[in-house]
Design goal:
Blueprint: H1 6-16, H2 35-50, E1 54-57, E2 63-67, E3 74-79, H3 93-108, E4 117-122, H4 136-142, H5 147-150, H6 161-166, E5 180-188, H7 193-197, E6 201-207, E7 210-218, E8 222-223, H8 235-253, E9 256-265, E10 271-272, E11 275-283, H9 287-308, E12 311-320, E13 323-324, H10 327-334, E14 344-347, H11 352-358, E15 363-368, H12 384-402
Parallel strand pairs: 3-4, 3-5, 5-15, 6-14
Antiparallel strand pairs: 1-2, 2-4, 6-13, 6-15, 7-11, 7-12, 8-10, 9-11
Bound molecules: glyoxylic acid and manganese (II) ion (2 copies).
């Protein structure tokens, strides 16, 4: 039965709390290869070495640390340490800290890995908050993305990925996941399903297909005072109508569409803009629904551009197909616990577990209840008792999967 080691979890959690936190919002800025994320990665390596784990780090900032015989098949767990801009404390780090705490729990139970080794992983740039492509580290490790494409990525300041890596003495090399038999990612829940179900822990069934699409609206820069309203070609208007259309289409279809980022040129109060670039994040219950939703929004953007005298070009920056997690693995994890089975839920959020699953590594996710249901925001939270329940659930899971 579960024996948690609460001090380990709470100590680690409070050690990480100040790193990358904004004093104004209380949210986190842990962008890849910047100071806070680099400090977190160094903390993780040290925590693994303190536990006697054997650490493998690659030239992208991915780290995997192993416990048990080096030639045995691997049961991998872990998550990520980067955050969205002004994100919460839990999205990512909860899975990493819980993985280390679960190893401590297994040790306190007298578990010794023999038939399998247990690994704890951190994958880089999961959020895509700096280079725009979510799950960059796990995509490169699994071969879902080639270095030839990744090396062209630039951040908002125009810094190329290879240069950002080089500034941290990283060379872009990738570690190997050969021998990994399965992956389990523990994550804070990013909605309120577990609150409604009255459960501290749940298991993922699937990830909705999702994508990021750049809409480049172009028009004619002009004077905000002297240009008559009827003489303008204002791309801001085309963008504004497109954002409304995206929300309406998604509501009608029962899906999700968000414009959360825009960039305006010249970005001056007293000038009609010449260009608006806006990024659509769309997520749907099926691959076809995603294609249909984006097509409908793009069509409305083009129609409106024709009326505004502007132009719009839509570029799919990344599209991730639906992921159905391994049903036998989810059933094995979710079923037959003291107090009943854990609920099994679909999620609309992307995760490294989805990338590993698509690459053929049977994968699963454990969710920990989030009382606010809010995520990608400083309001994201989880209670300490629920986090400890998550640690126990992960320890139980690893014991089942890595046991004799
Ligand atoms: C990652 O958290 C995503 O779903 O965008
Ligand atoms: Mn996230
Ligand atoms: Mn995450």
């Amino acid at each position: 039965m579960a024996v948690t080691v609460p001090d380990d979890f709470e100590q680690m959690w409070s050690d990480l709390a100040p790193i990358g936190r904004s004093v104004t919002s209380g949210g986190y800025f842990r962008q890849p290869y910047a100071a806070a994320e680099t400090e977190l990665r160094a903390w993780f390596v040290e925590a693994c070495l303190d536990r006697g784990l054997s650490v493998e780090a690659d030239g992208l900032g991915n780290v995997v640390a192993w416990w048990g015989p080096s030639d045995a098949p691997g049961v991998l767990t872990g998550s990520h340490l980067d955050s969205v801009l002004d994100g919460g404390a839990y999205d990512g780090p909860l899975g990493v800290v819980s993985a280390l705490a679960a190893i401590d729990v297994l040790r306190s139970r007298g578990f010794v890995p023999s038939t399998h080794r247990v690994g704890v992983s951190v994958f880089a740039e999961e959020e895509g908050s700096r280079f725009g492509l979510a799950c960059l580290g796990s995509r490169l490790v699994t071969g879902a993305l080639d270095w030839s494409a990744a090396r062209e990525l630039r951040d908002r300041d125009g810094v190329r990925l290879p240069d950002a890596l080089a500034a941290r003495d990283l060379d872009g090399s990738v570690l190997s996941l050969a021998g990994v038999e399965c992956f389990v990612e523990l994550h804070v829940e990013q909605g309120r399903a577990l609150v409604d179900l009255g459960a501290a822990v749940g298991v993922a069934s699937e990830i909705w297909p999702h994508g990021r699409y750049r809409f480049d609206f172009t028009g004619t820069a002009d004077h905000a005072g002297t240009t008559r309203m009827e003489d303008r070609a204002d791309p801001m208007l085309t963008y504004a109508m497109t954002a409304l259309a995206a929300s309406k289409q998604a509501r009608l279809a029962g899906q999700r569409a968000t414009f959360g980022r825009i960039s305006v040129e010249p970005n001056a109060t007293n000038a009609v803009p010449s260009r608006v670039s806006a990024w659509l994040d769309a997520r749907c219950s099926t691959d076809d629904a995603l294609a249909d939703l984006v097509a409908a929004i793009s069509r409305q953007a083009s129609d409106r551009a024709a009326r505004d005298g502007t132009a719009v070009v839509v570029t799919a920056e990344s599209v991730t197909a639906s992921v159905a997690f391994s049903t036998p693995l989810a059933a094995r994890i979710a079923g037959d616990h003291a107090g009943g089975d854990w609920p099994v839920l679909a999620t609309q959020a992307g995760h490294d577990a989805g990338i590993l699953s698509a690459a053929g590594i049977p994968s699963a996710m454990l969710f920990v209840r989030n009382p606010t249901g809010v995520s990608h925001s400083p309001a994201e939270t989880a209670s300490i008792p629920d986090c400890l329940a998550g640690v126990d659930a992960l320890a139980d899971t690893l014991e089942r999967l890595a046991g004799a």
